[in-house]
Amino acid sequence: MFAETIEVPQAVNRDSSYERGTSIDEKCDLDASRSDEPSSEVIDEYDPIAFSELGIGKRTVIRHECCVASTLHCESAERAKQVINEDFEAKYPMIHLTLSKMKSLKREMAELGVSNGIDVYTVATAYVYFEKIILKGLISKVNRKCVAGAALLVALKMNDYKKSTIKSYIEQAEDQLREPKSDLLAYELPICSVLQFRLQPTIDEIQPHVDRLQFEM
C-alpha cells in the first residue's frame, strides 16, 4: 500500500477556524480514508483533457443538408461560471473543489513558472500530478494551494532544476500562494507516494497540457 494513508507532519499552527469543519491536522493530510465519498468513486484512469472540456460551455448543433453548424449559448460570466461548476460537481462528486478554483490554481502555477523561467514541460508535469491527485478525491479548500505548490516543486526536482531556481520558486510560491515554506515542503513525499512514485508522465498525459501552456505562458 502507498500513500493514501500517509499524513503530513504538522509544520505550522493555524487557527482552528481556518476552514470550517476541518481540523489543523486534516489540512496537512493526503489520506484517502478521510474522504466523505466511497473509494469506489475514485477515478484511477487519467484523461488530461477531461477537465478542460467541461469549460467549453453548452452548444446547440444545427444540422442541414448542406452543412452542420453549432451555436454557443451566451450567458453572463457569473452564470456561466456557476453552471460549469455545477456540471463539474455532478460529474465528479468525489472532488471537493470547484472547477473554477482548480483553473485559478493552475493559472497561478503557470504564473510561477513564467516568473521563475520554468519551461512548459515542467509546468505541464506539475499539472498532471495535481489533476491526478484531484481525481483521487484528496484535494480540498484547505490543502489545495499546498498541493498545487508542492506539485510544481516536485516537477522542478524531477527535471533537475538548479538549487537557485528551486529556492527562488519556493520563495515566490510562499508569497503568491500565501502558504509557508514548511507546509509546501511537507507535501513533497505524500504527493510522490499518492502517485505511487510514478513521476514521469506519458506523452499522452502531458502533451495536451504542453499544447495549451505554449499559448498561455
Automatic annotation (TrEMBL):
<dbReference type="InterPro" id="IPR012388">
    <property type="entry name" value="CABLES1/2"/>
</dbReference>
<dbReference type="Pfam" id="PF00134">
    <property type="entry name" value="Cyclin_N"/>
</dbReference>
<dbReference type="InterPro" id="IPR036915">
    <property type="entry name" value="Cyclin-like_sf"/>
</dbReference>
<feature type="region of interest" description="Disordered">
    <location>
        <begin position="13"/>
        <end position="41"/>
    </location>
</feature>
<dbReference type="InterPro" id="IPR006671">
    <property type="entry name" value="Cyclin_N"/>
</dbReference>
<protein>
    <submittedName>
        <fullName>Cyclin N-terminal domain-containing protein</fullName>
    </submittedName>
</protein>
<feature type="compositionally biased region" description="Basic and acidic residues">
    <location>
        <begin position="16"/>
        <end position="37"/>
    </location>
</feature>
<dbReference type="GO" id="GO:0051726">
    <property type="term" value="P:regulation of cell cycle"/>
</dbReference>
<feature type="domain" description="Cyclin N-terminal">
    <location>
        <begin position="109"/>
        <end position="199"/>
    </location>
</feature>
